[in-house]
């Protein structure tokens, strides 16, 4: 095997082209979605910490967690 092109490597090892494409699309989706989601969560927490006074931060964090849970369930449900 003379190159490092991943689809060629996977098919060279005996994987079907369709399965190799599926594996790669899932890997790219996971690599793209999770850092973006974590960045969203971290920016959201920073905004809460900056804009909300300390007496009301717990309430804002609970509301944020509810909203993030709703986003998660929407992604799972489709």
What does this structure look like?
- With 78 residues, the protein is mainly α.
- The protein has one domain.
- The protein is 81% helix and 0% strand.
- It is built from three helices and no strands.
- The model has no long low-confidence stretch (mean pLDDT 78).
Tally of alpha and pi helices:
3
Distance between the termini: 39 Å
Count up the domains. Answer: 1
Mean pLDDT: 78
Class of secondary structure makeup:
mainly alpha
Beta content = under 5%
Low-confidence stretches: none
Query: Helix and strand succession?
Result: HHH
Rg over CA atoms, rounded to whole Å, is 20 Å
* Largest sheet entry: none
Number of strands: 0
What kind of assembly state do the chains in view correspond to?
A: single chain
Q: What would the principal axes of the Cα set say about the shape?
A: elongated
Helix content: over 70%
What's this model, at a glance?
This protein is mostly helical. About 80% of the residues lie in helices and about 0% in strands.
Supply database-style keywords:
78 residues; mainly alpha
Blueprint of the fold:
Elements: H1 6-12, H2 17-51, H3 57-77
Helix pairs in contact: 1-2, 2-3
């Amino acid at each position: 095997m003379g190159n490092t092109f991943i689809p060629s490597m996977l098919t060279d090892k005996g994987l079907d082209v369709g399965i190799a494409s599926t594996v790669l699309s899932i890997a790219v989706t996971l690599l793209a979605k999770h850092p973006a989601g974590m960045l969203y969560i971290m920016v959201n927490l920073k905004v809460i910490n900056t804009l909300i006074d300390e007496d009301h931060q717990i309430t804002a964090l609970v509301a944020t967690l509810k909203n993030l849970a709703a986003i998660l369930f929407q992604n799972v449900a489709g």
